[in-house]
Automatic annotation (TrEMBL):
Site-annotated residues for Important for catalytic activity and substrate specificity: D173
Amino-acid positions noted as binding substrate in the UniProt annotation, renumbered to this chain: T200, I201, D202, K239, Y240, M247, G248, R249, E308, Y424, E425, G426, R427
Subunit annotation: Homodimer.
Cross-referenced InterPro entries: ATP_PFK, PfpB_PPi_PFK, Phosphofructokinase_dom, PKF_sf
Stored Gene3D superfamilies: 3.40.50.450, Phosphofructokinase domain (3.40.50.460), Phosphofructokinase, domain 3 (1.10.10.480)
Stated name of the protein: Pyrophosphate--fructose 6-phosphate 1-phosphotransferase
Top-level taxon of origin: Bacteria
UniProt-listed SUPFAM superfamilies: Phosphofructokinase
Gene this chain is encoded by: pfp
Source taxonomy: Bacteria, Pseudomonadati, Bacteroidota, Bacteroidia, Marinilabiliales
Length: 551
């Protein structure tokens, strides 16, 4: 296989580990835990894995003599930079426990476990993937491990391969399912431990014990580099407003962090929109105000960041989407009629089926967007919010608003737009030093949890704004992160999703500075991720982490 010069040089990078993981490890039990909410319900659902203590690793005196252990690993959900290093950490960790240990990767995500598709990960095979981005070593997938029949099917292959522990690398949903699986195998005395690792570029799997999900650091650095480049272009040509949608299904952590790294003129934060119950028109009006003010200063250019999940946080859009989901549910009479109808009549007719408020919103949308809301649906029949071109929706609405303002004399400038969506280009980037080290440490931590016979735990590596050797590794019971939430009409135990906190330090810093950034041109140009060079450039963490930990 031909590889690039960077890949070649990067292959030699030795990820840094916390001090406690470098030699023999001593495991210190902390206090017993309880779930963040709904303690009684969660305890009842997880009798075998509830209330376990927090675990912290310290430097030990001597290594335990552990028999060889076979371990399985699954990559679940969207790609995030560093997944290959989690696998490298697990591999090196279990080989350190006993050189005869083996690692099996289940192919194509959780479905590989159910369908018995796997591959042994050997030292030679793994070599080419160390410190690289992507999940292509074994592939990923979005099959949900939820049914007992799937757990039993999985157990067959685990028994066949004599696998004693399974590591699930995933986001909040996948780790929720990892916890259910751990409990199921524990109750069955199946002899299989289940350990989770926190992954997602969205950054919404975090709490007191999980400071950040891996991949967030690298992905936002890639987006910030691109935003910085566009800002320089905008400031050079001085003729375009760039509307940039940023990935992140629900939470706006990516948008907020990118704003902190680049200081653009406008950044929308979905959580704030929901808190203030802002309408789409109010958002558009406030954007138009900034554009008009800049134009008054002779600056007919700027950059606006828009989080992917925005429309679901705008109350009237949320209501409209919910109504459309119900009306167009697969097999419903309305859906059948809608499909049979001539395309040119569809939207007008559908508006008559909506509540008056939602009909008004629906009719105010540009046709392309209204169409996207009715056509692009996921396998559950729901609107695929990530496919809605929110940046264009806002751009067109702002254009209309500015035309009105021009007539009334409130806008005297020009408004030319360019649209962008940054998402996939960040998910498989070569991991930053932070993600390379953090992921390797998470994988290594998982191997220590496995060696100690733990199940229902998630790898936790904390104190991440300090140099890596001072990081604190350990395990956190997944049940500790859970609460009960309504999903598809039923109350379910799930890991609480971490949205942007409006009283948190990162948002507060942003809110204190945004008015200045809006009018002045205070752009920051972070440039590309650096893998070699000064520590303050190469090993810096996200601004979010720095602000959160600067207590
Ligand atoms: P995970 O939560 O599984 O890590 O995925 C995150 C994400 O990248 C979102 O930001 C985005 O909305 C979604 O995946 C896109 O999914 P897909 O890869 O299926 O298009």
């Amino acid at each position: 296989m031909t590889i690039s010069a960077l890949q070649k040089a990067r292959a030699d990078y030795q990820p840094k580990l916390p001090k406690s993981l470098k030699g023999a490890v001593k495991i210190v039990d902390g206090a017993a835990t309880e779930s963040v909410a709904d303690q009684e319900d969660i305890q009842k659902l997880f009798p075998n894995t509830y209330g376990m203590p927090l675990l912290t690793f310290e430097e030990g005196a001597e290594s335990a003599n552990i028999p060889a252990v076979n371990v399985g690993v699954i990559l679940s959900g969207g790609q995030a930079p560093g997944g290959h290093n989690v696998i490298s950490g697990i591999f090196d960790g279990i080989k350190k426990l006993n050189p005869d240990s083996k690692l099996y990767g289940f192919l194509g995500g959780p479905g590989g476990l159910v369908d018995h598709e796997y591959k042994e990960i050997t030292a030679d095979f793994l070599e080419a993937y160390r410190n690289t981005g992507g999940f292509d070593i074994i592939g990923s997938g979005r099959t949900k491990l939820e049914e007992e029949a799937q757990f039993d099917k999985g157990l067959e292959v685990l028994k066949k391969l004599d696998i004693k522990a399974l590591v699930i690398i995933g986001g909040d949903d996948s780790n929720t399912n990892a916890c259910v699986l751990a409990e199921y195998y524990a109750a069955k005395k199946a002899g299989v431990q289940v350990v989770g690792c926190p992954k997602t570029i969205d950054g919404d799997l975090k709490n007191e014990m999980i400071e950040t999900s891996f991949g967030f650091d690298t992905a936002v650095k890639v987006y910030s580099e691109l935003i910085g480049n566009i800002q320089r272009d905008a400031n050079s040509a001085k003729k375009y407003w760039h509307f940039i949608k940023l990935m992140g299904r629900s939470a706006s952590h990516i948008g907020l962090e990118a704003a902190l790294q680049t200081q653009p003129n406008i950044t929308l934060i979905s959580e704030e929109v929901a808190e203030k119950k802002q309408t789409l028109q109010e958002i558009v009006d406030s954007m138009a105000q900034v554009i008009a003010k800049r134009a008054a200063n002779g600056n007919n250019f700027g950059v606006a960041l828009i989080p992917e999940g925005l429309v679901e946080f705008v109350p009237e859009m949320k209501k409209l989407i919910a109504e459309l989901n119900d009306l167009l549910a697969e097999g419903s009479a309305i859906e059948q009629e809608f499909k049979m109808m001539k395309k040119s009549h569809r939207l007008e007719w559908l508006a008559t089926q909506l509540s008056p408020e939602s009909a008004a919103v629906f009719q105010s949308l540009p046709t392309g967007i209204a169409n996207q809301l009715t056509l692009d649906r996921d396998p559950h029949g729901n609107v695929q919010v990530s496919l809605i071109e929110t940046e264009k929706l806002l751009g067109e609405m702002v254009k209309t608003k500015l035309a009105d303002m021009k007539e009334s004399g409130d806008f005297k400038g020009k408004f030319g737009t360019q649209y962008h969506f940054f998402g996939y280009e960040g998910r498989c980037a070569a991991p930053s030093n932070f993600d390379a080290d953090y992921c390797y440490s998470l994988g290594f931590t998982a191997s220590v949890l496995i060696g100690a016979g733990k199940t229902g735990y998630m790898s936790s590596v904390r104190n991440t704004t300090a140099p890596a050797d001072q990081w604190i590794a350990g395990g956190v019971p997944i049940t500790q992160m859970m609460n009960m939430e309504k999903r598809h009409g039923h109350m379910k135990p799930v890991i609480q999703k971490a949205l942007v906190e409006l009283d948190g330090a990162p948002f507060k810093y942003f809110a204190e500075n945004r008015d200045k950034w809006a009018i002045e041109t205070s752009y920051l140009y972070p440039g590309p991720i650096q893998y070699w060079g000064p520590t303050e450039v190469c090993d810096r963490t996200t601004v979010t982490l720095q602000l959160e930990q600067a207590k």
